[in-house]
Amino acid sequence: MPTDIEMKQNLYTSLKELGLTDNEADLYTISLSLGPSTIASLAEHLDMPRPNVYKVIAGLEKYGLAKFSERKKYTRTFMVEPPTTVLEKLRDKKRTVNNLDHTLVGSMPDLLALYHQGETPTKVKIFQGEDEWLKLFFQVIDETKDTISFFGSADAFIDMISWDTELQWIKKRTEKNLHLNALLTQGDDATTLRNTDEEQMRTTRFFKGKLPFVTGFMLYANKVTIWQPKAPLVVLIEDEYVVQMLRSIFDTLWEASKEN
């Protein structure tokens, strides 16, 4: 069972999560223990001048966590709303944030389409942990509204992420109605993918180059991810000029690999 100190700390953290200042959180926690109190008493406990106490109270009133007694103005006492009110407001905030999260995810492809890098610095990130690059892999779907392009070795790529993960990603991609153009080097997994193109919203072509390689890159939105399965690691590049270059290379090789 939590101690009194732990309970007060949890309450304090919750108040800060709602956006209260340190003084407002202190006033709430102190008033919770004191019960209805005069401004003079609160000023003494907070070691704060009375005018400042009124300012802090105004902050708590803004959050709906404070009230005065109905007695006359100069004799009335101050008290706070019960902790259940804090819990309700915390849950309301969580619901609001969740709604905003879903709305933002749905708008992400359009927002990224509006984004123009111009002269801002290139962003390059390296993901080496499995949790990190798998999160990035599924994030591709959240940020895309058009066709995704992949060039490289499907066999090495799937060996890196596993077939289970690949099938989960395909399911999520098809649910969002996103097509994938895959330009792949020859391999067993590449052939398996080719045979399920129609049902998995994919067009697979085989690269006609002679030199084998295990790396691959994925183009989506205004970004490119470069996958190096042997390390393993993933490099994320956010640079519209690099993306334009790689997209031009992909499109040229894509057309050259078209079967007669």
Task: Report on the architecture of this protein.
The chain has helices at 4-18, 22-34, 39-46, 50-62, 83-114, 130-142, 154-161, 163-175, 188-195, 240-256, and strands at residues 66-68, 78-80, 123-127, 148-152, 180-184, 202-206, 216-220, 223-228, 233-238. With 260 residues, it is α+β, with helices and mostly antiparallel strands. The chain has 2 domains: 4-87, Winged helix-like DNA-binding domain superfamily/Winged helix DNA-binding domain (Arc Repressor Mutant, subunit A), CATH 1.10.10.10; 123-256, Endonuclease, Chain A, CATH 3.30.870. The chain has a 7-stranded mixed beta sheet, sandwiched between helices. Strand 7 (216-220) and strand 8 (223-228) form a beta hairpin. Helix 1 (4-18) crosses helix 5 and helix 6 (130-142) runs parallel beside helix 8. It is rod-shaped, with a radius of gyration of 29 Å. The model has no long low-confidence stretch (mean pLDDT 83). InterPro entries: TrmB-like (IPR051797), Tscrpt_reg_TrmB_N (IPR002831), WH-like_DNA-bd_sf (IPR036388), WH_DNA-bd_sf (IPR036390). Residues 15-74 form the Transcription regulator TrmB N-terminal domain. This is Transcription regulator TrmB N-terminal domain-containing protein.
